[in-house]
Design a protein that fits this description.
- By secondary structure, the protein is mostly helical.
- The protein starts with a helix and ends with a helix.
- It contains four helices and no strands.
- Helix 2 packs parallel to helix 4.
Length: 66
């Protein structure tokens, strides 16, 4: 899933990449969940924290975590 998200991001489809990683966060636990969250945050940083897709995905991530 991480590689697929990377490819989507590089292809200009950040929203799809974020959705893929948020779905992974929802279905994993423990270290795997933490790794997925960290990877997603690194994708956010690549795109830029002010990007509207990043802002929306951060909210979705928070909902997935809590």
């Amino acid at each position: 899933a991480k590689l697929a998200a990377d490819v989507e991001l590089l292809s200009g489809n950040a929203q799809s990449a974020f959705s893929r990683m948020i779905a992974l966060v929802r279905v994993t636990q423990g270290e795997e969940r933490q790794a997925a969250r960290e990877h997603l945050v690194s994708l956010f940083e690549l795109v830029g924290n002010q990007d509207p897709d990043v802002i929306a995905a951060r909210t979705q991530l928070a909902n997935a975590l809590f």
